[in-house]
Amino acid sequence: MNSKTDIGRRLFGLSVLGAGLTGLVKVALGETTKTPPPEPIPKAALPKASPEAAARKNSGNPRTLCYVGGYTRSGPADANAKGITLFEMNAETGVLTQLGQITPADNPSFLALSADHRFLYVVNEISDFGGQKSGSATAYSIDQRTGVITKLNTVATGGADPAFLSVHPSGRYLLVANYTGGSAAVIRIQPDGSLGELSDLVHNTGPKMPERAKDNPPGNYAVSDHSAAHMHMIQADVAGRFIIGCDAGLDRVYVWKLDPDKGVLTPAATPWLTMEPGSAPRHFCFSPNGKVIYILGEQNSRIVVADYDQETGAMSVRQTASTVTAKFRGSTLAAEIGLHPSGKFLYVTNRLGDSIACFRVKDDGSIELFDEVWERANYGRSFAFDPSGKFMFVANQRSDSITSWRVNPDTGALDFTWNFTPTGTPSAFAFFTLDEV
């Protein structure tokens, strides 16, 4: 990706020097280090094992495995990844051990598992697949004993630079957000897990929006690309009735109905929620009961909390909350939002300021910031919890590392594990529990 639009996607004309300084500040709520760091681990001692040996060692026991994707091409960032890396997590310490060799893949920047964990789906965030101005998506089968993946096939997504994908709850369709393409794609999933044809491709249109929101944090020089439509996330709601899509370029959150037989998207009665101009809605997540949606604005680093009508897909905003403390000053771009598996806590990563915002979720679904934790790394693009919810892992895109925290199940507080896992330009996780078969 070499155009101004592509490079502007995540470089945004930023004050990078200011980013380094803000990342060093223990932000306003006063994080303190509870435990001293351990002695550095020699590189030769970093854990690594073969998938087969790990399977034999843990025979008969459930194992927590994780795939990590990253950037293999320069464009929105330097590219040090080589493909998709398989790790096994130690259930007691959270340490990640690489299993086997990295699976080569072209810019595998986001990953999604099938519900039965038999297949892995990956976006290839490129713009030149098959000589077209299109990205692609790749399907892999998963060895149920070792976790090793085998490529099934790769298909075009119909738009450039796909940034996100998810599997529809029916298991019949893959939903893809084409960022530069500004479109939502629906791809059929074949009975053998491979990818079939595009069943629909919807292009978003709308007026040009400002590059900054009026309510962004003071001193924020970071901007989001509003030159055109930029789909950043697409996923079904909890009930599987509607498809929700964040367009960071048009400042809209779209709502569609998916025809289960034809795989075609049609606008809901209320086709979109209009967000703060310039806010760049990036990602969202739902409450466990599906009645509340949390929408993250990238440029203004704010969360919109909205009531969600599961019958119509309509959203009614009732709260907004900043992902940085009131004392914060400087450039920041919010990246990832996610609920803890318990549903009691909500977290957001802030790039440039390099922090994790921690919120309590109240009984009515509203949120309250209770801490902001220094990431101890650079540009936390995404995060994920292991299936037990005991650990939180952050993919640090610009510092080529994964860092982790132990989550207090009662308070949601994050305690840094001092585990650093080196891996090139990480951008996404897919955790799952593998039971021996």
TrEMBL record:
GO biological process: glucose metabolic process
Annotated GO CC locations: cytosol
Composition-biased stretches (Low complexity): 42-53
Any GO molecular function: 6-phosphogluconolactonase activity
SUPFAM superfamilies, alphabetized: C-terminal (heme d1) domain of cytochrome cd1-nitrite reductase
Record keywords, A-Z: Carbohydrate metabolism, Glucose metabolism
Residue runs in coiled coils: none
Superkingdom field: Bacteria
Protein family according to the UniProt entry: Belongs to the cycloisomerase 2 family.
The protein, known as: 3-carboxymuconate cyclase
